[in-house]
Amino acid sequence: MNTLKFKTTINCSACVAKVTPVLDAQENIQNWEVDTTNPDKILTINSSELDEADLVKSLQKIGFKAEKI
């Protein structure tokens, strides 16, 4: 399993609620969390085989940016 980290624009609990269905729908994600207290709003994902580009596109479709760090 890999741990991936992304700098995002997921700022608050309402934003987390908005991305939850998108992230939960990703088959290869075992678990994920967003640190909204971090200035970079770090999204941490534990995944076996995640298509990073697909994840970024999925988040962009609902109005969020994500950049792998």
From TrEMBL:
One of its GO terms (molecular function) is metal ion binding. SUPFAM superfamilies: HMA, heavy metal-associated domain. Residues 10-65 form the HMA domain. It comes from the Bacteria. It holds the Pfam family HMA. InterPro entries: HMA_dom, HMA_dom_sf. This is HMA domain-containing protein. It comes from Pedobacter chitinilyticus.
